[in-house]
Amino acid sequence: MITPVLRAVANGFIDNRGIVVDYLYTPFSVKPSDLIQGTLDVLILKSLATEPRHGWAIAKRIQSVSGEVLQVKQGSLYPALHRLEQQGLIRGAWRTSETGREAKFYVITAAGKKQLKHEVSQWDRLSAAIKLALKNA
Amino acid sequence: MFRQLDVIRLRLRSLFKAKRVDDELDRELQDHLEHLTEENVARGMSPRDARYAALRAFGNVSVTKEQSRDTRGTTMIENLLRDLRYSLRGLLHSPMLLVTAAISIALGAGGNIAVFSLARELLFSVPGVRQPETLVSMQVSHGSHATYQRWRDLDESGALQRIAGYSFERQLNWFGGYAAVSVTPMIVTGNFFDVTGVPTTLGRTFSESEARAELQPRLAVITHAFWQQNLGGDSAIVGRTLLFDGEGYTVLGVLAPGLRSVAGFALSPGVYLALNRSNMPAIADTQFNVLALVGRLKPSQTLEQGRAAVDAADRRLGRIAGDSLYAGVQGFSPVGGLGSGKMVNVISLFIAMLGLVALLVLLIACANVAGLLVARAAERRRETAIRLAIGGTAWRVVVMQQTGEVFWLALIGTGGGLLLSAALMRVANSVHVPVPIPIKIHLTTDLPVLAWAVGVLILSMLFCGLLPAIGTMRRSLTSALKVEEPRYVQRKITPRVLLLASQVTFSTLLLVTSLLFVRNLTQSELTNPGFDVERTLVTQIVFPQRQSAADNLSLLQRTIQRLVVIPGVQSAAISSAIPLTSQAGPHAGRFAILGDQTERTHIEYVENRLGPGYFGTMGIRVTQGRDFLPSDRAGTPKVVIINEEFARRYFQSESPIGSRIRIVASDSADPGVEVVGVVGNSKYYTLGEDQRGALYYPVEQRSGALSLAFVIVRTAGNPDALIAPVRRAVGELDPSVAVQVEPMRSALMFALLPSRIGAVMLGSLGALGLVLAAFGLYAIVAYNVSRRIKEIAIRSALGATRGRILSLVARDVAVVVGLGVALGLGIAAIATKPLAVFLVAGLSATDPLSFLGTALLFGCVSLLAGWLPARSATRVSPSIAMRAE
Lengths: 137, 885
What we know:
- The structure holds 2 protein chains of 2 kinds.
- Chain A is built from 5 helices and 6 strands, in the order H-E-E-H-E-H-E-H-E-E-H.
- Chain A is an alpha+beta fold.
- Chain A is elongated, with a radius of gyration of 16 Å.
- Chain B folds into 5 domains: about 1-75, no CATH class; about 75-125 and about 345-485, no CATH class; about 130-335, no CATH class; about 495-530 and about 750-885, no CATH class; about 535-745, no CATH class.
- In chain B, helix 18 packs across helix 21 (about 725-735).
C-alpha cells in the first residue's frame, strides 16, 4: 500500500485534503498503477452493492464511507463509470432523482456482483500479504 | 450471456447514436457540476463564488469526455470514418487530381478485369452440366480421342459410373427451308445426356434406351441459340423433323439458354445428334479415333481412384487389342478446370501475355497516381509539419490521410474499371470470329469477377500508396518547414525520380511489345501469298455425306461449265483445298525419281487435287511445262505438277519435265507419275512459314473423298459483284448442297486473324500505356518546375538565357527518361523472346526497328513533356516568381 501511495504523492495525486483520486491517462503514455485504477472500480461496485445511485451520489458515498479520506473527482469518476458500463458490470438508466431532476442511475449487474466478491477477496489476500511482508522484512 | 448482450447493445449504440451518447455524458457532467455548486452554497459561499469554486474543482471537462469516449471502444472505427470523410473532402477540393487519377486507374483496372474474364471463359469455364465437379474429361491411349469400340469397352468395364463420347468435327448440311446451310453438330453417344445431365427449357433430351447406336436413332436436341436464330423460336419445335444431309431427325427438346458446351474453349455447337451409322461411318472402324470421352465418377470415387480405374481398364483392353504400348490414361481432369493439351497451351500463353500486358498498364497507371500523390504530399509539407507539431500522431496525420486518399482513388478507379470492362465484355461477346467451328463467348460480370476487382483494388492501393507514404514518413520536422528543394545541379534520387523512371520503364516495355505486333501485322499483310487475292472468288461446296465422289465430281464439272458463261467471269477451276484457309495437313512419304540412282529420301510436301485451269485462275505462274488439261483424266497416263521449291530441292539444275517420280506415302502408293509442269511457289499454311514443296494432282486421276470442294472463279473486275450470280448458279444445279461464296481476300482473313487480334489488342494497350506515361511525365515535370521556380527566377535574373534554362530542365528530364528507356529496352530484349512463337518468320523478337522506334517515340514525347512547362516557367518575370510560393 505504501509504494503506490508514495508514487501517487510524487505525481501530485495527493494534496492536503486527503487522497484525491484524479489522474490523467492517454492510450500511448505510461499507465498509472493498476492498483489505483482497479481500486476505484471496486469502490464504485461496492457503493452500488446496496442500492442504485447516480454519479454524484456514488462520489459522495465513497467519500463518506472512507471517513472523508478518499475524494473522487469527476475526471476519474465518469471514465471509470463508463468503463464499468462497457464491461457489463453495471448498467445505467435515466430516472428522476430525489431532487426531482433527471439523472443517470447506475445499477450493479449479476456479473458485477460476482466481480465485486472476487475483487474483495483479492484485496484481502493482497493486504494481508503486504502487512506480513512489512512486518517481517 | 446477458452481460454480452448488454455490451453489444452498448457498442452498437455508441457507434450509431454517438451524438445521443455524447449528450447524455454532457448532462451527467452538468448535473455533477450543479451538485458541487449547491454544496458550496450550503457551505456559505455566494452563488457566484460557489459556481466558480465548483468549476475550478471540476477540472478539464473535455479531457473527461475524451476519456469516457475512449472507454467505449469504438474510437478506432470513428477515427477511421472521420479520416475517410476528411480525405474525400480533400480530394474533392482538387478535382484535376481526382479525375486524372481515377481515369488512369480505371483504364488499368478495366483491362485487368476484362482479361481475367476472358481467361475464365476460355480456360476455366464450367459447362452447363449436372455436378460438373464429378464429370471428367479424359484422354486415353495416347490420343485426344478414342475409337468407337474402345469407348464401348471402357463404358462397359465399369471403371467409372458411365462414360460418354462426343465428336465435333463433321459438317452436315441442314436443309432449312429454302437453302442448305453447313452446320457442325455435336454427334454424341446414346448415353451422353444421361451422363452429363444438361438442363432443358423445352421438351427433353434423349436417353440411352432410345438412342443407342444399334437402334439407328434419328434423334436431335437443339441449343437455345440455334432455336432462336435459325428456327425463329418456334414453340412447336418439339416433335418436328429437321433434315440433316437429307435424313430426318426428330427434335426431342431445346436446351436451356446461356450454357457452355462440354467441349470447352467457348465452342458452341448448335445441334446435338445421336450417333448412328450414317452420321458416323467410323463406328465400325478400329482405326479412326473419333470420340472425345467424358465420364461420370461413381458417387464415392475420388479423382485419383477414377483415374486409376480407367487406366487399368484401358491397359487391359490395350493388351487384348495388341496395342498395349499406347494404352493408359494421359489426361484426366474435371470439365471446367484447366485441361491439358496443345490447344490449352497456346491459349494459355496468349492469355498470360495479355494478362501481363494489362498488369503493366495498371502499374503504369499506379505509378502515375503515386507520382501525383507524392507531389501533393510535398506541397502540403507545411501543413503536415504544423499538424504534427500541435500534437497529431504521425499515424493519423500522415498515414491515415494518405491511405484514405489512396483508398478513395482506388475505389473510384476500380469502379470505373468495372464499368469499362463490362463495356469491353459486351463488345467481345458480339464479335464474330470467322472460323468454321462456331464459337460463342459469354462474358458476364459475376461474383468471381467482382472478387477479382476487389483484388485489383487492393493491389492498386498498395502500389499507389506505398511509395508516397514511405517518402512522407521519413521527412523530419525542420526540413519540412524549410521547404528544401534539391537544386538543378544536384542529382538526388528522390521517390519522385524513382517513380518517373519506373513509369518510363514499364511504358517502354509495353510500347516495344505493341510495336512488335503492329509490325507483325504489316509484315503479314505485305507478304505475298503467291496467288492473286484481289480478283478471285472462293466458292465452298459441301456435299451431303452419302453422295459418291464420282457424283460430286460430275456436279463440280457441270458447275464450271455453268460459271464460265456468266459475264465478268474469266475462268473457273476446281480445287480440293484453299491455301492458308482450308488446306489439308502436310503429307509425308519416301520419294524417288524413277531411273535415278538417288536413294529414296523422306520428304514432306503439301498435296492438292485440282481441276484443269487452276493455276491460271489463281494467278500462279507456270514456269515450265503446262497446266492440267481436260485430257488429264481417269484412264490417261498419270501426271503431276510440282512447285518451284520442290524442283529446287529434288531436281537441282536439271529440268524435271518428263521425269517420272514415285512417292510411297502412308495412304497411297502409286507406280509413278510424270511431271508435266513447274509452277510458282505460294504459302500454304501460314504467311510466315518457310517455303514448302508442293505436289498437284488432277482431281480426276486421284481417288479420295470429295465431300468438301472448292471452285475458284477469276473475275474481270471487282469480285464482290459476282457473289450473288455464282451462288445462284450453283444452287440451281443442286439445292441439296451447301454453298458459300466469298472473295479470296475475306477468306484469307482467317489466316491473318491471329496477327490482327494481336496487333489490335496490344497496339491499343501500348498506345494507352504511352498516353498514361506521357501524361505522368508532363505532370511530374510541371510540378518539378513549379517547385523550382525560385531557382529559375534567380538564374534568369543573374543573366541566364531562356535557352540555357530550357536545357537545364531538358537535361534533368533526359537523364531520368534515358535511364528508364534503356532499362525498359534491356528488359524487353529478354522478355520478348517467348513471343517469337506468335510472330511471322522474318521478324525477330528483338526486331531493331521496333526497339529503335520505341526509343525515338519516347524521346519525342519526353521532349514535348519537358519543353511545355519549362517554356511557361521562363516566361514569368523573376520578381513575380520570387514572391510565388
